[in-house]
């Protein structure tokens, strides 16, 4: 049966062919606040907020207690305690369980694994899965540092990377070799908000028994899309962004089926990239308001994208919620909202360097801060040509699709009308 939902951007109803949570699962707002409800464990010390367990090691009452713990550990059982901080922490586990519930629903058999940064989640996952001599296929709009890691560090290990155009699924399938182990993409991507056809990616991978799919869904969040429900094997988030939501903590997370995450957890114990308990506490606190924040950011971004597209001083807008976006159809089919990031190009002024024109617009904005990152409660704005690609010449930037007049606007939770008014006055300065 096809259900309809009210669009998160307030534009009416649309068919929900999005493989939603099973009917007995709770809404994303409830999961954000509570995490898994079915079979919920008693709170430690009866504390409503998860306590910060700030310890490097754990004690055992006697050798029998130690042996019982080790037996459970050997067979993959996770007890409500640990032995050493690099392997386990109750505060971190609490945040992991909440994120797993958000991505997979509170009755699905998924787990999550936290890391100190989003890039640590990416690098640890790739290092853990890819054997020497293997091959990875990656889309060309992936995060710059992810591409650099694949083309430098992984290459040193004898792991080859093939980069294919985002949205070209024929090229992606043709790039798969007998030694291919991973298909990696983002959805939406940075900075052009391209949206992957998740079901098609999963189908391509299933035709090749050893190939796993990984989606970096940082820009989407579990509020807008849950790639695991489309058959994607692993989902990665920079927890620094929307999940924590306050620009005050760094974290990364990978989510997938319990067995696969258990294997990654074993690797994490060797590689050592673990999240500290205080950061996990801050992350979990942010998760409780995730759905509220993202829905507000969705609505404001949609309104801002429509305003910008109609403005004479804007040459082009990249936002999946607009019919003009190349992936609008697939975005409508699989997303419950289109995210809080907009990329757009300032219209050139004859005789003026586009860098100068765009810089005048950026400097005229009063609400957003000029800063990298996204997903927090404060709006942030940047020129990718200056923020992320400053060291490149104009020609080098253009060769990788970064124009001097490109703006990335990561919208916070400020009032929608205030954001629109700020955009209007800044564009008038041009």
Overview of this structure, please?
The chain is built from 17 helices and 14 strands. It has helices at 28-34, 63-74, 90-104, 118-129, 144-151, 153-156, 169-175, 198-206, 221-224, 258-271, 277-287, 290-309, 328-334, 354-364, 384-387, 394-399, 416-429; strands at 3-6, 13-16, 110-115, 135-139, 160-164, 180-186, 212-216, 234-238, 252-257, 314-318, 341-346, 369-370, 380-382, 406-410. Helix 9 (221-224) links the parallel strand 7 (212-216) and strand 8. Helix 4 (118-129) packs across helix 10 and helix 14 (354-364) crosses helix 17. The chain has two domains: 8-287, 3-Layer(aba) Sandwich (Aspartate Aminotransferase, domain 2); 290-429, Aspartate Aminotransferase, domain 1 (Alpha-Beta Complex).
Summarize the structure.
This protein has 430 residues and is α/β, with parallel strands linked by helices. It has helices spanning 28-34, 63-74, 90-104, 118-129, 144-151, 153-156, 169-175, 198-206, 221-224, 258-271, 277-287, 290-309, 328-334, 354-364, 384-387, 394-399, 416-429, and strands spanning 3-6, 13-16, 110-115, 135-139, 160-164, 180-186, 212-216, 234-238, 252-257, 314-318, 341-346, 369-370, 380-382, 406-410.
């Amino acid at each position: 049966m096809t259900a309809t939902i009210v669009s998160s951007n307030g534009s009416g109803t649309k068919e929900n062919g999005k493989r939603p949570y099973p009917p007995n699962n709770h809404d994303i707002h409830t999961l954000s606040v509570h995490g898994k409800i079915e079979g919920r464990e008693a709170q430690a010390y009866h504390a409503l907020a998860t306590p910060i367990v700030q310890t490097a090691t754990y004690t055992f009452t006697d050798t029998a207690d130690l042996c019982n713990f080790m037996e459970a550990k050997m067979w993959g059982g996770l007890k409500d305690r640990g032995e050493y901080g690099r392997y386990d922490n109750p505060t971190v586990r609490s945040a992991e369980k909440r994120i797993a519930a958000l991505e997979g629903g509170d009755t699905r058999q998924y787990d999550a694994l936290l890391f100190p940064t989003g890039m640590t989640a990416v690098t640890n996952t790739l290092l853990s899965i890819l054997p020497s001599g293997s091959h990875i296929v990656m889309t060309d709009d992936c995060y710059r540092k992810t591409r650099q890691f694949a083309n430098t560090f992984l290459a040193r290990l004898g792991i080859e990377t093939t980069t294919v155009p985002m949205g070209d699924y024929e090229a992606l399938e043709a790039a798969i070799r007998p030694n291919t182990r991973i298909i990696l993409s983002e959805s939406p991507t940075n900075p052009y908000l391209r949206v992957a056809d998740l079901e098609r990616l999963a189908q391509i991978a299933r035709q090749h028994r050893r190939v796993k799919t990984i989606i970096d869904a940082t820009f989407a969040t579990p509020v807008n899309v849950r790639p695991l429900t489309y058959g994607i094997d692993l989902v990665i988030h920079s927890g620094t962004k929307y999940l924590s939501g306050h620009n005050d903590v760094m974290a990364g997370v990978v989510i997938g089926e319990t067995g696969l995450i258990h294997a990654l957890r074993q690797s994490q114990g060797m590689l050592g990239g673990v999240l500290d308990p205080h950061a996990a506490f801050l992350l979990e606190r942010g998760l409780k308001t995730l759905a509220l924040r993202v829905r507000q950011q969705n609505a404001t971004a949609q309104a801002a994208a429509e305003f910008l597209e109609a403005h004479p001083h804007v040459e082009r807008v990249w936002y999946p919620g607009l019919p003009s976006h190349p992936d609008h159809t697939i975005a409508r089919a699989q997303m419950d909202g289109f995210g809080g990031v907009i990329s757009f190009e300032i219209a050139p002024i004859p005789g003026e360097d586009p860098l100068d024109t765009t810089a005048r617009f950026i400097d005229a904005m009063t609400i957003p801060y000029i800063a990298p990152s996204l997903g927090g409660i404060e709006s942030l704005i940047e020129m990718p040509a200056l923020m992320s690609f400053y060291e490149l010449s104009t020609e080098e930037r253009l060769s990788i699709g970064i124009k001097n007049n490109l703006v990335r606007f990561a919208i916070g939770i400020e009032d929608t009308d205030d954001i629109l008014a700020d955009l209007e006055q800044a564009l008038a300065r041009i």
